[in-house]
Each structure stands twice: as C-alpha cells, then as structure tokens.
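Bit of a strange request maybe. I'm writing a small parser for structure token strings and I need a real example to test against, not something I typed by hand. Could someone generate the tokens for this chain?
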Amino acid sequence: MDTRTTEAAPAAAPVPAPADEVTGRLADQLLRLSRRLHRAQRRLLEPLGITPAQARLLRALAHCEEPPRMADLAQRLDVVPRAVTTLVDALEELQLLRRVPDPHSRRVIRIELCDGGRRALADLRHARRTAAAEILAPLDDDRRAALTELLAVLDRDEAAEPHRC
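Reply from user aminoacidic:
Good idea to test on real output. This should exercise your parser:
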C-alpha cells in the first residue's frame, strides 16, 4: 500500500461567465461614452462661460414647479448646500438667475431663472444635443431608436422618481 500523500493541484482561478464578461465590457463602454459626452459638452459650454456644474443647476432649476430654496436644489442635485451657494453666486453674477424672497416667509430665499437663464438653457440644450450628435454620428436612425429604447429600460427607476423641488 502506498502511504505517500499527493499534493492537491492548485485551484484554478474561476473563469468568469460570459455574461459577466459582457456586463464588465458594457460597464466600461458606458463609462467611456459618458466621459466622451462630458468632454464634448464641456468644450461646447466653454464659449458660454458656464461650467458643467452650473449647467446642471440651471437644468434642475428649470424643472422646478416653483422657485426652490437652496436646500431644495442641494437635495435635488445630491450635493452639500455650500456647493449650491457657490454655483448660485456665480450664476447670479452672470445674471442667469436671482435670489427672491419667499412670499410666505421673510426668512426664506428662493432661486428663480432670469431671462438670461432661459436663453442660456436653450444654448445648453443645443450644446448637449450637438455633443450627443457627435458621439452618435456612427449610428443610423434605426440604431439610435433601438439604443434609446434599451437605455429607457435602464433609466426607468430614475425616471419614476419625482423631480419636484
């Protein structure tokens, strides 16, 4: 009888399932495309003198049913209130928005768009669409429609959340 012990072969590293590989590749692609879109948008926003963060605040403000408080904007943007104050200061200096007193409470200040802010939003929309068109240029209309449908499925949870201020 053989009393020698045999060494166990080293365990092979787990081979990722094909679905895991596809998911990882897709995640990388989405991140790269998001970065490309952000860079293109930033390039197109530069002549307007508006940063991406300021553009985001203007878009959030445009979706509010009534002029929001700064705390409401901070919550909606998922940032600290101090960050909103800095953005509002800069946008107010550009005469794109203004602080207004709340009609029901003297202690509350609300933020509203000025005419210049509404014009800036139109320019921002144009810049975003131009940036997206650059990235989507290789896709024909049918592929763009298919991609829109697929992304809508992934974006469903976000779209279902109320965006009130």
